[in-house]
C-alpha cells in the first residue's frame, strides 16, 4: 500500500530539538540529581553529628576548649558505676516500655472506634490529632498547670467530687512525677499511633473481616485472632517509631520536671543534656546519649524482621 | 416449602436504591442462582440475607424464623464463600477450617474430627499445614468450601466463588460444586454475573436488574421463555435477536434458531428473513453469522445466526441468503414495555 503524500503528523520525524535526549530522558543522571538534596541533608545534619558524637564519647572533650584527648572507654566505665546513671537508665526503660504499652492499647482502641461509622467521625478524628500537632513546649506548660502543686485541676476535681481528702503533690513525689511524665508522653504519642493503626486496619481486606463475622467469631476473637495478627506489620512499625521517639525524648522530662525531684525522673537524653551541655562534660554527655544505641539497633532490627515476616504471612 | 424467604426487601444507600422490593423464596435443599449484571443488587441482596447489611425495609426468614431484626450473622446458621475466598492469610488451612468451629466453642477432639472430615470431602488432607499463599486458586477454593461446610450451616451463600479461577478450571469447579451441593443437600443461594454458570448450576435462576427481580424460573424456562427483553438479551451468548416488526412488536429468536431455509422441512411453519452476511466466525462447533436483514420494513437490523457444524451450507460474506426461524421458537415482546406477549399480532 502506498503512503499518502502528506504523511500524518505522528509519522513525520520529530523536530531536531526533540530528538536529543534531555536530562529528563537520562534516568540515571536525573535520579542522582533528585536524590542529591536528601543525601546531602542526611550526611551533613545526621551523619556527621552522629560520627562526631561517637568520637566525643571516647574523648575527654569539654566545652570551652578545643583540646581532644582520647580516653577510650573511660566515660562508659564511669557512668556504669554512677548511681545517678543507673537510676536514669531504669527510668528510661520504664518510660519507654510503659508508655509504649499504654500507647498501643489506647491507639488500638481508638483506631477500632474511629473505624466504625458514626456521626461526627471526621470531627473526632481531627480533635484526636491535636495533641500530636500542638507544640510540645506549649502542651507541657498546660500539663504543668494540671499537675501544679497548688492549682492542680486534678486535685481540685477529686476534692470537689468528694473522692479525695488530702492533697497530691504530683511533681514533688518521685513515682508520681514519673507517672505524670508518662501520662503526658502517652497523650502526645498515641494520636500518631492511632493514625498508623487506622491506616493498617483499613488495609485489611473487607471480605476477610466479614468472613470472620459470618464464621461466628465474637468481637474479641475477631480482634485477637484476625485483626491484630493482620495488623502486626503495622503495629511493629508503630512500636518501632514509638520506642525510638520515646527513648530519645528530652522535651517532656526537661520541660516538666528538669529531672527532679532530686534528679529522680531523669531519662538518658535529659541527663546527657545536663551533664554534656550544661555541665560542660561533652565526652560523658555523648557516652550517656549513645549508651542505648546498640540496644535500639537490635530492637529496630527485631521489629523490622517481625514486620516483614508477618507481611509474607508466616 | 420456602426455607429462605424475603418479603418486599428493600435496601437504599442514600438516594441509590440497590434492592427494590424483592420477594423471593428458596425451597429446602434448592440451589437458587441470583443472576444479573454488576450493580443489579444481587450481592446486596445476598449480604442482607447473610446479615452483613441491614435492610431498609422488608423481611427475611430463614427456616421459619424471622432474622432481619435482632439476629446477628453468627446466629443465622449461614456459611458464606466469598469471591476472594477470604481465607485468613496468617492461619494454616487447618486453622482456617477450624476457625468457625472454635468460634462456636466446639470441643477440641470434635474440631479435629470435623476438620478431617471436611478436608477429606474436598481432597485437601495434604494441604492442611500450608498457608493460603502457598495454595493455588483451586486449592484455596476447596479450603474455603471446607471452612463453610464444617459448621453444618442451614444455608450456603456463594458470592461469585468461581470468578477468580481460569476458564479451564472453572468448568471443573462448577461440576464439583454442583456435585457437592447435591450430596449434602444444603439450601444454597449463589450469586453470579456469568450466565453459563447460572444455567449450569441453578435449580432455578432469579434474573435481577436495577434492584428488581425480573424473572424466576428453571434455567430452561428462563432461557426459552424470557419474560422481557432484558432477560432475553442478558441470557444466551450471543444474546437473543430482537427484530422490529411494527410499531408495537419486537420478534425475538435465539441465534441457534436462525438457520438457512433449507434446514427446515418445506411444510414447517417458519418466519422467513433475508440475511445479508457481513461476517462469518468459525468457532469450531458453531459458525457465527453476523448479518443485516434485507426485508423492506425491517431493513438494516443486525442479527446473529449460530449454525452448528451439522449444517454445512456454504455461507459467503456480502451475499444475501434466505434464513428462517421456526414459529415455535419465535417470541414476541411489546416495544414500549419490553414485556413478552403471547403472539405477534399488533
Structure, described:
The complex is a heterodimer of chains A (314) and B (346). Chain A is built from 14 helices and no strands. Chain A has 314 residues and is an all-alpha fold. Chain A folds into two domains: 20-57; 77-309, Orthogonal Bundle (MetI-like fold), CATH 1.10.3720.10. In chain A, helix 4 (83-115) packs parallel to helix 8 and helix 10 runs antiparallel to helix 14. In chain B, strand 15 and strand 16 (302-308) form a beta hairpin. In chain B, helix 2 (93-103) crosses helix 3, helix 2 runs parallel beside helix 4 (137-149) and helix 3 crosses helix 4. Chain B is elongated, with a radius of gyration of 24 Å. The chains are: A mainly alpha (314), B alpha+beta (346). Chains A and B meet through helix 9 and helix 10 of A and strand 6 and helix 2 of B.
Short description:
The complex is a heterodimer of chains A (314) and B (346). Chain A has 314 residues and is mainly α.
Compile the SSE list and pairings.
The complex is a heterodimer of chains A (314) and B (346).
Chain A: H1 16-19, H2 27-57, H3 74-81, H4 83-115, H5 121-133, H6 136-146, H7 153-160, H8 174-203, H9 206-214, H10 219-247, H11 251-256, H12 268-278, H13 282-290, H14 293-311
Chain B: E1 2-13, E2 16-27, E3 31-35, H1 42-50, E4 57-62, E5 65-66, E6 78-81, H2 93-103, H3 108-121, H4 137-149, E7 155-159, H5 167-184, E8 187-192, H6 195-201, E9 204-209, E10 212-217, H7 219-224, H8 229-234, E11 241-244, E12 249-253, E13 259-260, E14 270-282, E15 286-293, E16 302-308, E17 320-326, E18 331-334, E19 340-341
Parallel strand pairs in B: 3-8, 3-9, 6-7, 7-8
Antiparallel strand pairs in B: 1-2, 1-4, 4-5, 9-10, 11-12, 12-18, 13-17, 14-15, 14-17, 15-16, 18-19
Helix pairs in contact in B: 2-3, 2-4, 3-4
